[in-house]
Structure formats: structure tokens, C-alpha cells
């Protein structure tokens, strides 16, 4: 499962893309950047693949955001022989596991933290 979030810093927003293994609930890939674009999510997926080496046919779930529907991301998924799954439009429960992860990350790890960069 993959998604992005944002974190406030003194220099502006920092975007964080995360790939989460739903079986182990382990973060297997991530990427951070000052801009939210396809490169951000491609890098997170590449890290996840390098760390886990999934077999062909792995189910990959994301929302329908422009980064995940981008040509470069969809091409990478096809090259990796991953099965594409995307949340239904305006149906947050399809992505509940990722939203729960981000809630815990922000609430327990980043709460009241001030980052310079």
C-alpha cells in the first residue's frame, strides 16, 4: 500500500511518500522531497522493491492521486509485474490502513516537533 503525506518545517512543507507492507505493517520504502511529484513516489516504490524483492503478481494499492496515476509510476508497476489496485473515488475506507499509519506517525512521533528542514 502506498500514499503520501506532508510535514511542516521552518523551510515549508516536506512531502513524505511511504510504501507499507500490509502483511507485516512494516514501512518498506519511503522518500522525502520539497515537491510532491511522480519522482517522489517512484523513489519510495523502488526502495521497497530493492528491500523486499517481491515476486510478480504482488498487489499494489494506492489512492487515485496524480502521482500514482502518472505514466512513470504506472510504467514502473507494469515493469515489476505488480497488480494495480486503487481506492474508489471519495471512499476513504479503502485506504484506512495507510491513514491509520500516518495518524500514528504524526500523533505519536511528530507531535509538537519543530523541524528546521
3D structure, described in words:
The protein is an alpha+beta fold and about 120 residues long. It has one domain: 2-Layer Sandwich (Nucleotidyltransferase, domain 5). It is built from three helices and five strands, in the order E-E-E-H-E-H-E-H. The strands form two sheets. It has a three-stranded antiparallel beta sheet. Strands 4-5 form a two-stranded parallel sheet. The longest helix has 15 residues, at about 40-50.
Please outline what is shown here.
This protein is an alpha+beta fold. The protein has helices at residues 38-52, 71-79, 96-109, and strands spanning 2-9, 12-21, 26-33, 59-62, 83-86. The protein is globular and about 40 Å long.
Provide the fold topology:
Layout: E1 2-9, E2 12-21, E3 26-33, H1 38-52, E4 59-62, H2 71-79, E5 83-86, H3 96-109
Parallel strand pairs: 4-5
Antiparallel strand pairs: 1-2, 2-3
Q: Tell me roughly what share of residues is in helical segments.
A: 25-40%
Q: How large a portion of the residues is in β-strands, by DSSP E?
A: 25-35%
Q: What characteristic shape results from the CA principal axes?
A: globular
Known CATH architecture: 2-Layer Sandwich
* Overall structural domain count: 1
Specify the structural class: alpha+beta
Strand order of the largest sheet: 1-2-3
H-E order: EEEHEHEH
Largest sheet: 3 strands, antiparallel
The CATH class assignment is Alpha Beta
The parts where pLDDT drops under 50 for at least 5 residues are none
Terminal Cα separation, in Å? 27 Å
Radius of gyration (CA) equals 14 Å
CATH fold annotation: Nucleotidyltransferase, domain 5
CATH H-level superfamily = Ribonuclease H-like superfamily/Ribonuclease H
Amino acid at each position: 500500500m502506498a500514499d503520501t503525506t506532508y510535514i511542516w518545517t521552518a523551510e515549508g512543507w516536506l512531502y513524505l511518500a511511504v510504501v507499507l507492507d500490509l502483511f507485516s505493517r512494516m514501512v518498506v520504502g519511503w522518500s522525502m522531497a520539497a515537491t510532491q511529484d511522480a519522482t517522489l513516489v517512484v523513489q519510495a516504490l523502488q526502495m521497497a522493491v530493492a528491500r523486499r524483492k517481491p515476486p510478480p503478481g504482488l498487489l499494489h494499492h494506492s489512492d487515485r492521486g496524480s502521482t500514482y496515476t502518472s505514466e512513470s509510476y504506472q510504467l514502473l508497476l507494469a515493469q515489476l509485474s505488480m497488480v494495480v489496485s486503487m481506492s474508489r473515488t471519495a471512499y476513504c475506507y479503502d485506504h484506512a490502513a495507510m491513514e491509520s499509519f500516518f495518524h500514528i506517525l504524526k500523533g505519536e512521533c511528530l507531535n509538537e516537533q519543530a523541524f528546521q528542514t
